[in-house]
Description:
By secondary structure, the protein is an alpha/beta fold. Helix content is 45%, strand content 16%.
Amino acid sequence: MSENAIGIFDxxxxxxxxxxxxxxxxxxxxxxxxxxxxxxxxxxxxxSTIVKYAxxxxxxxxxxxxxxxxxxxxxxxxxxxxxxxxxxxxxTGVVIPTATAAVRATRNGRVGVIGTSATVQxxxxxxxxxxxxxxxxxxxxxxxxxxxxxxxxxxxADDDIVKLVVxxxxxxxxxxKIDTLILGCTHFPIIADAISQxxxxxxxxxxxxxxxxxxxxxxxxxxxxxxxSNTPGSCHYYVSDTVDDFRRTAEIFLGxxxxxxxxxxxxxx
Length: 269
């Protein structure tokens, strides 16, 4: 089973930042990614709908024989909290790994959390941070326009539109003098330069994709499930909407072109 692929899913494209990080942390692992691009975004859906979609996404990955499931989606990780108990393989979302890293990183005990509306409303990151340390003050802000910026290619720190939206969302946190900021949506690392430029170099940004990749590697090592291969792993991508649109946007997230590795699936069949 150790040579089986790692399964990663997201509501759309943001989870590709986790894929990129995972290929750096575990370069010899095979990865199967599913992006539910036909039903994105999850962040504005009801709790029951998010849970149903997450279960369907995980079931698809299990049908591909994966050895681990990663929900590279802040919304799913925040809302579908019972998913881990339903799966026959190891599972992680992004909340616990990311919150743990933030607790370790903060120096003044003032941590910011940004994410989708569903993620922020759930209070998942705040709850986990306070579970680990009651001495930390957590400031939250939903930033739904960040997703639209990234998926439409507005990602440069020098872009006036990007700078305006970043300032609009993060001005309250800057006033609160946070020293650590959780990027609680896997889209957000794409505009990390713009966020860091606005907040200043003294604010540590916590990349949920990076922290989740490190967390997953630790789980696989402890359970003896790391690949023993000495050759680079492969990635295959499945989407529930058009393949061509995915290919174009994936280049922004992965920093490389994606050609034959993408397939379309219909979860309703």
